[in-house]
Design a protein that fits this description.
alpha/beta, Beta Polymerase, domain 2, 5-stranded mixed sheet, about 15% helix, globular, two-stranded antiparallel ribbon
Length: about 170
């Protein structure tokens, strides 16, 4: 394959089979690298630059027909130099049942643009990602913790978070 292998994922310039022309056209103005995600039920995906994150989603919603944000989360790669986190959004076109995974990479302590202006469901998903990973979302209307107490120290889904937590309890 003529692609570049990064983090066990192969990225290419060509969209994988099954990506509609509408999706390809919507993402044409952006610097995307395409991939396939066999572990996720064969969802095709793409990697976009963090600066183009919200604009790529807006284009996919407007011209690509992706009208549902299925999920929005992150993955922590503490061993990766520079861009520790991968933030991803799973989209679906309800008319055609086409699915697409859109990913971007984020350095620690840097923000990603919010998607709340495009989908109301992004509100809770971004708050959850912030609460568990500490990734801020620029422009989010209420970026507060939803699971952990407001004064909780740390981000529980980061791979360097202690397995026993910060507090050890005794019987």
């Amino acid at each position: 394959m003529d692609g570049v292998k990064q983090s066990c994922m192969v990225y290419t310039d060509e969209a994988p089979e099954g990506v509609s022309e509408a999706a390809q056209k919507a993402l044409a103005p952006f610097s995307v690298k395409w991939s396939e995600h066999p572990v996720h039920g064969g969802w095709p995906g793409c990697l976009v630059e963090r600066a183009q994150w919200a604009e790529a989603f807006a284009a996919l919603k407007e011209t690509g027909g992706f009208n549902m944000l299925v999920d929005h989360t992150a993955v922590d790669y503490p061993e990766r130099e520079g861009e520790r986190f991968t933030v991803l959004g799973l989209l679906m076109n309800l008319d055609t049942q086409e699915r697409l995974m859109v990913r971007t990479r984020v350095p620690e302590d840097e923000a990603v643009a919010t998607l709340t202006h495009l989908w109301a469901s992004a509100d809770w998903a971004e708050r959850e990602t912030y609460d568990m990973f500490g990734i801020p979302f620029a422009g989010h209307p209420d970026l507060t913790r939803i699971y952990m107490p407001q004064d909780f120290d740390g981000w529980p889904l980061r791979r360097d978070f202690p397995m026993q937590g910060h507090n050890r309890f005794r019987d």
